[in-house]
Amino acid sequence: MTGTSGVDTARLMELLSVSLAAYYGDFTAAAASENLTASQGKTLNVLRRGPAAMRVLAAVLTCDASNMTGIVDRLEKRGLVRREPSPTDRRVKNVVLTAEGEHVIDVIRGKMHTTRAGLDRLDGEERDTLYALLERAFVARPASV
Is the per-residue pLDDT at 117 higher than 60? Predict the structure, then answer.
């Protein structure tokens, strides 16, 4: 994919900003409908990918470790997560999503009507392309030089 695009980086960044604002507004409202803050919902969303150490959660959610402790404490009190020792380092506690936590994050995702409606306007090929582009831009890591 070489050549020049008619859309410059600044315009792409603006569209990403609008898209993310719509997504996070939708997510925040859906989380609130389950009596969760956006930060609590985001924590469940991250844990949907697998267990994580507290420091990793804090880094991913870009929050202070003490704030992360409070978020996890509240989620644990509701039975949505549990702490368990790391299998590789006994000093580390991993946070694990419970079955109830999985259910709640699935409910939140199901209530994200604005986001779903936008994605539903894309056909299968467009969805595949969007997925591949987002993965390439934000998930895939370039090979080391």
Answer: yes
